[in-house]
Amino acid sequence: MKSSILIGVISDTHGLLRPEAIAALRGSDHIIHGGDVGSPDILEKLSEIAPVTAVRGNVDKAAWARKLPEAEVLETGCISIYVLHDLAQLDLKPEASGFSVVISGHSHVAKQETRNGVLYFNPGSAGPRRFKLPISAGRLTVENGAVRGEILQLSVGQP
């Protein structure tokens, strides 16, 4: 039995799935997309790597995107992960609800911090560069009921 679970985390692709992002997510047991997908092709390509859990972001307005939930729960390796696009829309107390991790996107700023025993994880944006923010994705490692996050800066040329 595998001792750890790797979860690739990506957000704000806005219709652009860079080869560097695909490379960073390879080897994942599961992939979470934090919204602003931009195109159903993105989810299709990600699902060739691993099963995908995705939520709808504020730019995901087309008919295909209406099938995506605004929030989703993933249970894996004895932990519960709550996924939504915009952290400002969080309408529950994750620690009281038994969540170990809250994943969001929206801000395009990669960030991870632990509050009240809950890891808040935003992988940043893997899509088109916005302002001068870095292009990034993330990875969660779940092992022995604990989780740790890692922000992955993607080295990319100009698209």
Report on the structure:
The chain has 159 residues and is mainly beta. It has a single domain, classed as Metallo-dependent phosphatases (Purple Acid Phosphatase, chain A, domain 2). It contains 2 helices and 10 strands; from the N terminus they run βαβαββββββββ. The chain has helices at 19-25, 40-47, and strands spanning 4-10, 30-33, 52-54, 71-76, 79-84, 101-103, 111-115, 118-122, 136-143, 146-153. The protein has a 5-stranded mixed sheet. A hairpin with a 2-residue loop joins strand 7 (111-115) and strand 8. The longest helix has 8 residues, at 40-47. 42% of the residues are buried.
Strand content: 25-35%
* Mean pLDDT value: 94
Q: Kindly report the CATH topology.
A: Purple Acid Phosphatase, chain A, domain 2
Multimeric state = single chain
Strand order of the largest sheet: 3-2-1-9-10
- General shape: globular
Biggest sheet record:
5 strands, mixed
DSSP strand tally: 10
Distance between the termini: 41 Å
The number of domains: 1
- The CATH homologous superfamily is named Metallo-dependent phosphatases
Number of helices: 2
Helix/strand class? mainly beta
> Helix and strand succession?
EHEHEEEEEEEE
The radius of gyration over CA amounts to 14 Å
Low-confidence stretches: none
Task: Give me a quick take on this structure.
This protein is mainly beta. The chain has helices spanning 19-25, 40-47; strands spanning 4-10, 30-33, 52-54, 71-76, 79-84, 101-103, 111-115, 118-122, 136-143, 146-153.
